[in-house]
Design goal:
- This protein has 541 residues and is of the alpha/beta class.
- Helices cover 63% and strands 6% of the residues.
- The protein has 25 helices and 7 strands.
- Strand 3, helix 24 and strand 4 form a beta-alpha-beta unit.
- Helix 5 crosses helix 17, helix 5 runs parallel beside helix 21 and helix 20 runs antiparallel to helix 21.
- The radius of gyration is 25 Å and the shape is globular.
- It starts with 14 loop residues before the first helix and ends with a strand.
Length: 541
């Protein structure tokens, strides 16, 4: 183990402040807005399919099978809706499942880093994970990826303790890997599983017997997860099972290219900030200790995750979330090893970035509410036509509380080089908090599909045999099912139908009429959105 890990390290944040910071990150943005494009709406759409009488065993979206996610997350989200439905609408209640899983992910990242590096490093690694740019938005969505993150963090914690407690390590590793499978499928399960197997030749860093025993126990614990659900599905829904297997295999058999590798590295470079650069520094610090568990566990997991993302052709932010866990675990140890100049640079960058963002948020909010200065107010209002600003005490008080808490934290935080990560994580919590308190109504007005869904529903009779759709995206299928009760037969899947109605999604400047047998009866869309929708009624044959 590197010598710098043995020195006495001051605690940058007391336990109470750390807990309040986590709460300030997790709670804002869970309630008070409609399902937003893309992942939030799609995830809730899959849940709504089950809540509307669909299968809880085989996920579906707006009447069609959904293969990219397993059922486990939706079980928890459905439970959250059941418990909180007297108080909250379904889409708000469902997001508490994500908060639960992100809290678990933070906890297990902290435990893994504490085991590998030390107590303070564990706290700092948790803050590095919480501060990743790619996590901020998606942690507050109805997204099965949140369950995957918690599962991966638990599995890597199991590997971290394999040398001293193989029984506990095996159970935690196996259960975490199994939950990853039930949350996101084969690719998610493969990450900790391959990492564990690749670590076997390096098991000299621990008692090889203990490590092998832990992996064996883990495989035994994993077995029920990967057998029971697929067997039940194969027997009760064989068509779904065949489609799920085909989709899962296709999702990890893409042909990697240099362009895809560069695109993935570019994606990871900003979604994993600041954990990514800190982990590169940790890798350099461990260059003479490659068999040490502090290097072997997270870095083997990182390379496995990177390789699987490359094979999956990852292009979306959601795709890159899986690599955040192994990157964040060693980030806390890197924060301890940073030179004073680098640590101060990150601290001041965080202070300037989030301080200016907070100032701009408050100034623009004041201009929007009062109309002064007029030019600034006009520019803000122009972005969301039709929005009428209203002063609301609760969002205002929450925004003030978050701002004051941020000022107290950054001024009272320990002045050592370790304050860089607490300062960055607090800034991320402040930025997200202001966006989802004083700016929430403005954002939701521009992103909600509720008015479009309500307008569309008014054009349709109470009972209708079927609706054909063309070009309708996953988000739109989900929100129209939720807000308008519409489930369409997609032309892209079923071909031409004899449905009496046709719903078409198009972009402004790229519209084509479907044919003479259709008469347009409605057109609509969100304000300042190039996505438009037309409803047609069949008038011939």
């Amino acid at each position: 183990m590197p010598d710098w890990l043995h020195r006495r390290i001051p605690i940058p944040l007391p336990a109470l402040a750390l807990g309040l910071l986590v709460a300030a990150f997790l709670l804002p943005g869970l309630v008070g807005h409609s399902p937003w494009k893309t992942e939030d709406a799609v995830g809730f759409g899959v849940l709504w399919q089950a809540l509307s009488g669909g299968s809880w065993l085989t996920p579906g979206l707006a009447g069609e099978p959904w293969y990219s996610d397993g059922p486990l997350y939706f079980w928890f989200a459905g439970l959250a809706v059941k418990v909180l439905s007297p108080l909250l609408p379904a889409h708000d209640a469902a997001r508490f499942a994500s908060a639960f899983f992100i809290l678990l992910a933070l906890w297990f990242v902290r435990l893994a880093a504490r085991e590998l590096y030390g107590k303070v490093q564990g706290d700092l690694s948790m803050l590095a994970f919480m501060g990743c740019i790619g996590l901020m938005w998606h942690a507050h969505e109805v997204a099965p990826e949140t369950a995957m993150l918690a599962a991966l963090a638990a599995a890597y914690y199991g590997l971290a303790i394999a040398h001293k407690n193989p029984l506990k390590a095996g159970v935690v590793f196996g259960a975490g890997t199994g939950v990853a499978f039930l949350a996101k499928g084969i690719a998610a399960m493969s990450q900790p599983l391959l990492a564990a197997l690749l670590l076997l030749p390096l098991s000299a860093f621990v008692h090889a017997r203990n490590y092998s025993l832990a992996v064996g126990i883990g495989l035994a614990v994993l077995a029920p997860f990967v057998v029971i659900w697929p067997v039940v599905v194969a027997q009760t829904a064989p068509e779904y099972y065949s489609g799920w297997i085909a989709w899962q295999v296709a999702s990890v058999t893409q042909s990697p290219t240099w362009a895809s590798l560069l695109g993935l590295l570019k994606l990871v470079s900003w979604t994993a900030w600041p954990a990514g650069p800190l982990t590169l520094w940790a890798a350099w610090a461990y260059r003479r200790h490659l068999r040490d568990p502090g290097f072997a566990v997270p870095f083997v997991a990182t390379f496995v995750s990177l390789g699987l993302l490359l094979l999956a052709g990852a292009e979306r932010e959601m795709d890159a979330l899986a690599i955040l866990v192994p990157l964040a675990i060693p980030a806390g140890s890197a924060a301890v090893a940073l030179r004073r100049g680098a640590a101060n640079a990150l601290t001041w960058f965080a202070l300037m970035t989030f301080g200016l963002l907070a100032l701009a948020a408050w100034v623009m909010w004041f201009a929007m509410l009062t109309g002064e200065p007029e030019r600034l107010s006009r520019n803000v209002m122009k972005l969301v036509p039709g929005f009428v600003p209203e002063f609301q005490w609760l969002p205002f008080a929450a925004g003030v509380l978050l701002t004051v808490a941020w000022l107290v934290l950054v001024t009272r935080c320990d002045r050592s080089t370790l304050r860089s990560l607490p300062t960055w994580a607090a800034g991320m919590a402040l930025a997200w908090g202001l966006a989802t308190t004083i700016w929430l109504a403005w954002i939701d007005h521009g992103k909600t599909y509720a008015p479009v869904g309500a307008a569309l529903a008014k054009q349709l009779p109470g009972k209708i045999a079927c609706i054909e759709s063309r070009g309708l995206g996953e988000t739109q299928r989900a929100v129209f099912h939720y807000y308008a009760g519409i489930v369409t037969l997609r032309n892209e899947v079923h071909g031409p139908t004899r449905c009496p109605y046709l719903l078409v999604q198009f972009h402004l400047g790229n519209a084509q009429e479907p044919g003479r047998e259709w008469r347009r009866i409605w057109e609509g869309g969100r304000a300042r959105d190039r996505e438009r929708y037309r409803l047609y009624r069949r008038v011939s044959g």
